[in-house]
Design goal:
single chain; 6 helices; 121 residues
C-alpha cells in the first residue's frame, strides 16, 4: 500500500470538506446550494484543466467528493463529444456517471427496504 497516496488523499479530501464546512458556517447558503456549487465547481475546474492534475495527485481524495462527480460529468461530456460529436453533449455526462448513479439508486432502494422513515418529533 502506498501510504503517501493515502496521506495525500486524506489531506486533499479533508481540505475540500473544510471548504464545505466554512460555506455552511460563514454564509447563508443552504446545503443543497453548496452541493450544487461543488458539482459545478468540479465541472468548471475540469474545463480549465485544473481538476485532472489534482485527481492525479490525490486520487480518491479528489475524486470521491462532489467536486469529483462534477469532474466525472465533464470528462464524460468531453469523451462523448469526441465519440459522437454534438450528441455527446447530452449523452456523455450520463455515460460518465452511470456507475455512480446506479449505485446510489440501488443503495437508496435497499435502505428503503430495510429501514422505516420516522418523523423528527
Amino acid at each position: 500500500m502506498d501510504w503517501w497516496m493515502v496521506v495525500k488523499a486524506f489531506v486533499v479530501g479533508g481540505l475540500i470538506c473544510v471548504v464545505g464546512q466554512l460555506l455552511i458556517d460563514l454564509t447563508k447558503l443552504t446545503p443543497a446550494r453548496i452541493l450544487v456549487l461543488f458539482v459545478t465547481l468540479g465541472v468548471a475546474l475540469t474545463a480549465i484543466g485544473v481538476y485532472e492534475p489534482l485527481i492525479d495527485f490525490a486520487g480518491a481524495g479528489a475524486s470521491v467528493p462532489l467536486t469529483g462527480f462534477g469532474y466525472s460529468l465533464a470528462k464524460g461530456v468531453q469523451e462523448g463529444i469526441a465519440e459522437k460529436g454534438w450528441l455527446g453533449i447530452f449523452t456523455g455526462g450520463l455515460t460518465g456517471t452511470a456507475g455512480g448513479i446506479a449505485f446510489a439508486v440501488t443503495l437508496a432502494f435497499l435502505c428503503g427496504l430495510f429501514f422505516k422513515s420516522k418523523d423528527k418529533s
